[in-house]
Amino acid sequence: QVPLVESGGGLVEAGGSVRLSCAASGRISSLIFMGWYRQVPGAQRALVAVITDEGIENYADSVKGRFTISRDNAKNTIFLRMNSLKPEDTAVYYCIARRLNGETYWGQGTQVTVSA
Question: What is the pLDDT of residue 29?
Answer without folding.
Answer: 63
